[in-house]
Amino acid sequence: MVTLRVARAFVQADHKLRVANAVVQGAASAPKLRVANVLIKGAVPLAIQSIPDATWEAFDRARIDVPNPSGFPTGVNFSWRQISGTPVTIADNGTYITFTCPAVLLGDTLTFGVTAHVSGSDSTEQTANIIVPPHLRWQATSTGWQPLRRRVGL
């Protein structure tokens, strides 16, 4: 009979199972280990890759995606929130969000955060910055200044 004793097994941020300090007893030669199923009980460590900053113009429909969402375990949910900047209405689609960039006279940086949740475990929040440059086309109306959507043609 061959016995495998494992001192430590863990799942790293890349979602690969690692085994450390394994001792095989009763093997006549170099043994091969085949793992068919792994059941992980308790908290599963999660890590979201960094999300690059992006620049979008006023009135553009912006989209922010979780990098490599297929690399997460089954049953993972993502929670999005706006941390700072001119408030926008977020359409949350799970692995990504969309929103319309605001027209801001002096420009703005919108910061969003995303957290992954699965089996009672949460990732650390990953943030993304959306830079919205100053919007230069405005029109005076009876209710105040309104941004113009037209772009300058050359």
What can you see in these coordinates?
This protein has 154 residues and is mainly β. It has strands at residues 3-11, 17-25, 54-55, 61-65, 77-84, 91-92, 96-100, 108-118, 121-122, 126-132, 138-141, 144-147. Strands 3, 5, 8, 9 and 10 form a 5-stranded mixed beta sheet that branches. Strands 4-7-6 form a 3-stranded antiparallel beta sheet, with no helix packed on it. Strand 11 and strand 12 form a beta hairpin.
Number of domains: 2
Strand content: 35-45%
Radius of gyration: 24 Å
Average residue pLDDT = 78
The helix tally amounts to 0
Given as residue ranges, the uncertain stretches (5+ residues, pLDDT < 50) are none
Shape: rod-shaped
Order of helices and strands: EEEEEEEEEEEE
Q: Between the first and last Cα atoms, what is the distance in angstroms?
A: 81 Å
User: Helicity range of the residues?
Assistant: under 10%
Number of strands: 12
Q: Which topology of the largest domain does CATH recognise? A: Immunoglobulin-like
What CATH architecture of the largest domain do you see? Answer: Sandwich
Biggest β-sheet strands, sense, barrel: 5 strands, mixed
Structural class: mainly beta
CATH top level assignment of the largest domain? Mainly Beta
